[in-house]
Amino acid sequence: MSTVFESAIKNFLAPIGDLLADDSVSEVMINGPSEIFIERKGLVYKSDNQFSDEEALQSAVRAIAQSVGRVIDDDNPRLDARLPDGSRIHAVLPPMAKMGTTVAIRKFSKDDLTLKDLINFGSLSADAARFLDICVHLGKNILVSGGTGSGKTTMLNVLGGRIPKTQRLLVIEDAAELQVDAEHVVYFEARHENKDRGIKPVSITHLVQSAMRLRPDRIIVGEVRGVEAMDLIQVMNTGHDGSMGTVHANNPSEACTRLETLALMGDTQIPPDAVRKMVGSALQLVVQCSRYSDGGRRTSHISEVLGVDEFGRYIVRDIFRWMQTGKDEQTGKYIGEVVACNYLPTFFDQIVVNKLPFPKSKFIAPEWVQKISKKAA
Ligand SMILES: Nc1ncnc2c1ncn2[C@@H]1O[C@H](COP(=O)(O)OP(=O)(O)OP(=O)(O)O)[C@@H](O)[C@H]1O
Ligand SMILES: [Mg+2]
User: Which atom of ligand 1 is closest in space to residue 156's alpha carbon?
Assistant: First the structure.
């Protein structure tokens, strides 16, 4: 950890030092100097910690910004930065932040999660995890979709870690966050414009263009939030099979639409219908991450994208999905599991040809699900 950052923590962040040091706290949310909430195991609690006043809080935020070479002031009242320890911070100053300086610190999780961890958390079933592993192995283009804080980056990290070790992976992000467990991986981070310091921007689009010329086997675009959607679509459609990205959307079909909308935001000359078809052919799998109100983060859908139908709608079929079966009275946690949806992916023959141990029967919904479905019908 850089010493500038360490001293910023010691001096200015002392009021929340214990929260930052506590590994069980995953997020610290500061809503003005006297209201601090934390997230622990997916649930949000109010903390007793406080800053002495708004000035102390602003000094802390300014010190953090300074320690990572950024500025937060009246002219630049928002800060989006990655701290030297890997944590991520976003801050907004008043008067935009009505309750005083508002900050969220997403703490870097020291233990990189694996597919096994996601199974243990109940976020995936063993079969669904194995299926995802196979999809990564076969080089399917995967879009990880979900709401804010639903576990998209974590999922992308986990999937990236399953890329065959012989392949060269190029990772491009707006703010470096991913730490993929791969042998041959190269990371890029976009640069933001800073007119005061004469720094010109280097966008994700620029970096994707460079990545294409750096002999990639696969490209990961960490978070697709803008016109770089078009770049990811083109990467996926130009033979870089097994490329991946994340997008903010509530379900797999919305994820396709979101990618299309973002791609059209640029100055592309390609007509919307053609872009839709490009999205339909670029994507093969959508992994939907969801955060439920019991605090659990689960993989709610794993779906195949088949293209676009004659009415211009995306054809998306669920392969696995999470189903709730009850609720634990004591803990309030939902009970459920990720189950197969009676749908055989179109690339099943590749699973067979490559002798991957995943029989057809794994795609059949368990009997109890079939019974529920029959009842509902
Ligand atoms: N399946 C899971 N089970 C439990 N905790 C998880 C799971 N996935 C992610 N988390 C935790 O949830 C938090 C948010 O995860 P992550 O950063 O991956 O979300 P995100 O969707 O990328 O968020 P954002 O929208 O802010 O980019 C992290 O603290 C992470 O460790
Ligand atoms: Mg993320």
Answer: 18
